[in-house]
Write a structure and sequence with these properties.
1 helix, 12-stranded antiparallel beta barrel, mainly beta, 12 strands
């Protein structure tokens, strides 16, 4: 969300690590919700030392009378301390969405946000702990609040990665998500799947995702 393995979408808790300078990646996935499905594509690059992600998502309602929706996202993340084995790193990230219509609560990137991601290597990079703290301004819903997230990656092998996270914001709902990733081509092409659900409230939303991540060699 290359430094070669970093947390990526559709997971919400951001990794402090970024795409390596001169590198590029594309994250894309399909998300299945009750009564609708979403398609997302988020290309990212690092032209001058900061990671820039710009992409879009489209939601399609299953009901003929339902309204389809589209969002455009932009996020910039700068690494302030590089991650070393059995150490930690941190970064500063800011993002915005044009028309935050697609599940703005459980995506947690509403109209604007500013947050600090932290990543910690444990047991020689076998486990990476992720934490986020920041603020979110959901203008479409007239809510502002403190956003918090905690997650982790467990590297079961060179190709399999298990992931889990919980996150939320004051004035918004809280969610959890778990999934796995598999490297078809190490540090180049990755498949992922996840299951997410709401932790509080009466709606009890849940969703499934299936996607891929493609990382290019350094171009410039």
């Amino acid at each position: 969300m290359s430094a070669p393995v970093t947390a990526a979408r559709p997971f919400v808790v951001g990794d402090a690590r970024i795409v390596g300078r001169g590198g590029r990646q594309v994250e894309s996935w399909v998300e299945r919700n009750p009564g609708s499905h979403e398609l997302w594509a988020l290309p990212a690059c690092n032209p001058f030392g900061a990671e820039i992600t710009a992409g879009s998502g489209a939601l399609y309602n299953d009901a003929p009378e339902g309204r389809d929706e589209r969002d455009q996202q932009l996020q910039v993340k700068g690494l302030l301390r590089a991650l070393r084995r059995n150490d930690f790193c941190w970064a500063l990230a800011a993002g915005m969405v044009r028309r935050a219509d697609i599940n703005p609560d459980h995506n947690l990137l509403a109209s604007t946000c500013l947050f600090v991601p932290l990543s910690m290597s444990i047991r020689d990079d076998r486990f990476v702990l992720l934490a986020n703290i920041g603020g979110v301004d959901n203008r479409d819903r007239g809510r502002r609040g403190l956003s918090l997230g905690l997650g982790g990656e467990y590297y079961a092998s060179d190709r399999f990665v298990l992931l889990g996270e919980a996150y939320g914001a004051t004035g918004l709902d809280r969610y959890a998500q778990a999934g796995l990733r598999y490297w078809l081509l190490p540090n180049r092409l990755q498949l992922d799947g996840s299951y997410g659900f709401q932790l509080n409230g009466g709606n009890r939303a849940e969703w499934f995702t299936l996607g891929f991540r493609w990382i290019t060699p350094v171009f410039f």
